[in-house]
């Protein structure tokens, strides 16, 4: 049986469009694979305790344009890399009307405060930590505005300083 010429053209057009759509889908997936992925997780602040033995460390997470910044606070031995779950987690924290983030402030050698203006959510997992032979108290101070904080995310401003 022979296929009429107009039907051959229709099959050729449908096949060509299907192949083109497949190639386009593959190219788009490849192009956007670098844009969609794991959220970034960057250390943006590290403050040494007055006795020099302990660091309070702040990480900024960025899930992309449709999410706010997250902030994770760890307390570790001086110079150590944080691991495990954070003692405090903030989502959507701001230091002023135009600056995201939080500030870490040592009140004494065994007490550190996390200060910020407001946050969409605050999760306090630990208020007392044992670091080596030292006990450290953590406090959350919401409502503290930092007028000197630069606008934008904390990592962005760190990169701007370099």
SSE order and pairing:
Blueprint: H1 5-33, E1 40-48, E2 54-62, E3 69-77, E4 88-91, E5 103-108, E6 111-116, E7 121-124, E8 128-131, E9 134-142, H2 154-161
Parallel strand pairs: 6-9
Antiparallel strand pairs: 1-2, 2-3, 3-4, 4-7, 5-6, 8-9
Helix content range? 10-25%
Shape: elongated
Helix/sheet category? alpha+beta
Sheet with most strands: 5 strands, antiparallel
Low-confidence region ranges: none
Strand content is 35-45%
Q: What strand line-up does the widest sheet have?
A: 1-2-3-4-7
Mean model confidence by pLDDT? 90
Our Rg estimate from Cα atoms comes to 25 Å
Number of strand segments: 9
- The domain tally reads 2
* Count of alpha/pi helices: 2
The ordered H/E elements are HEEEEEEEEEH
Instruction: Measure the end-to-end span.
Output: 74 Å
